[in-house]
Design brief:
Strand content: under 5%
Distance between the termini: 25 Å
Low-confidence stretches: 1-17, 183-201, 203-218, 222-229
Number of strands: 0
Structural class: mainly alpha
Number of domains: 2
Order of helices and strands: HHHHHHHH
Largest sheet: none
Length: 229
């Protein structure tokens, strides 16, 4: 197979093997590595560098499988593209943009009228009411973002690049607080401060719009089955 069928970006233009699962998987892996390198990913737990190195391992695996499959014969064009280098596990694409977006998101969130309403109306809630309404979890989004910015935690800050999911959570909580509470639930001392109570994470749908890893926090998002048959 002639190497003339590869353009300057390493993309497969034409040639044999385009419909082969190995060829498609190798091409997809190169495309994914390019995407992570230029634009970054959306993994909420792992850096772009860790995911890029995982994709690099996939690329090497697919190439070795091609060598086993084709022997000393001709390889598909994409095989001849150079394997990407290993990168620092701390690498994050567009870090300045992530920082700027996080700061902008924080400004939008702290200025939100629903957040102001919530803070003005939670003083008299009991612990059970706070837990039932997910007060700790929702207000925690705001404090967490401030914490991530102070630590320059780019992976966590990236989750807030679009603050809509936080604003939606604030709106839902404000709507609940604006409705009459059940008569069977009593109120605590309204003079108690918000900071005295730190609820555990609430199992509500408030975090449903945050991306989660494909498998678990122990595996980067790029995990995949390396099998074809």
């Amino acid at each position: 197979m002639s190497r003339r069928n590869i353009d300057t970006g390493g993309q497969l233009l034409f040639g044999l093997g385009g419909d082969d699962p190995l060829t498609r998987s190798l091409q997809d892996s190169f495309d994914r590595w390019d995407q992570l390198n230029k634009y970054g990913g959306s993994d909420p737990c792992w850096t772009d560098g860790i995911n890029m190195n995982l994709v690099r391992s996939h690329i090497m695996y697919y190439k070795s499988q091609m060598e086993n499959k084709y022997g000393s014969g001709e390889y598909p064009d994409i095989y001849y593209r150079e394997t990407p280098p290993e990168v620092s596990p701390d690498f994050m694409a567009n870090p300045e943009q992530i920082r700027a977006d996080a700061i902008a998101a924080l400004q939008i969130i702290v200025a939100d009228e629903n957040l102001k309403f919530i803070r003005e109306n939670i003083g008299g809630l009991t612990d059970k009411q706070r837990q039932a309404l997910c007060v700790g979890a929702v207000l925690g989004y705001v404090q967490n973002l401030k914490h991530y910015i102070s630590r320059d935690d780019l992976v966590s800050m990236r989750r807030y690049q679009d603050p809509k999911w936080v604003l939606d959570s604030l709106q839902r909580l404000a709507n609940r607080l604006s409705q009459p509470l059940p008569e069977s639930v009593t109120m605590r001392d309204p003079d108690s401060s918000e900071e005295e109570y730190e609820d555990e994470e609430c199992e509500a749908d408030d975090v449903s719009e945050v991306e989660t890893p494909a498998e678990s926090a122990e595996e980067p998002e790029e995990s995949m089955q390396l099998s074809f048959f």
